[in-house]
From TrEMBL:
UniProt-recorded name of the protein: 1-acyl-sn-glycerol-3-phosphate acyltransferase
Record keywords: Acyltransferase, Membrane, Transferase, Transmembrane, Transmembrane helix
InterPro entries xrefs: Plipid/glycerol_acylTrfase
Pathway(s) of this molecule: Lipid metabolism
Species name: Campylobacter concisus ATCC 51562
Database matches in SMART domains: PlsC
Amino acid sequence: MSLKILRTGSFFFFFAIICISGDLLLVPVVLLGLNKFKFIQNLCRDLVRISWGFFIKVTRICGCLDYKFELSELNGGSNLVIANHPSLLDVVFLVSKFKRINCIVKGELSKNIFLFAAIKACNYIPNTNNEEFLQKSVEVLKSSENLLIFPEGTRTKDEIIFHKAAAYIGVKGAKNIVCIGINMHPRSLRKNEPWYKIPDEKIKYHFKEIKNFDVDIFLKDRPSPVRARAMHDEISKIYKEEFGERAS
């Protein structure tokens, strides 16, 4: 076994230990239904943000990866934060960056032994691809929470293709759309790629705010379906301009 694989495996093991340690606190919250209280929910989100932030700082100190944030603080609530999704760790970075942000996660992660307690205790929203998921997303935005979504629905392969759900959610519930571009070089931790298939050079992430616009003034006199289609086209255009032909 190469030193590179051993080092990468140790960091994933470290992340698993962080998640399991968090479960010791979060599982009782879920079992007792305490996550229905906003105060408890916020404490759980703070715990996840701090522990995941600690993880990425350790990986940087140990030379496994590096990262740069060019992101503004979110202005109040009801921000829909949109990002492309090049790697497995994107959500870890962004949840650790934005305080108490809600997040749309893969539905199957609700059964993941390492993540299920965090998802339930923090009231993150499973992407179940149905009307309930869309309505829940709109409701949390209307309640002044900020919400993170990866509109591709899965990790980026060769080009960035967004589903229309993000635009629908934005039109129905958000005040602002915050578009974040994630650049990663060299590419690694992609979908269907083994965790141990990693490059020889250090992985570098760059998180950049590429657009921030007010939903209320976006075609405000047009019906919601028209606005949603136009917003989807606008968001796709923003990412195409940022990433070239990899976005559509």
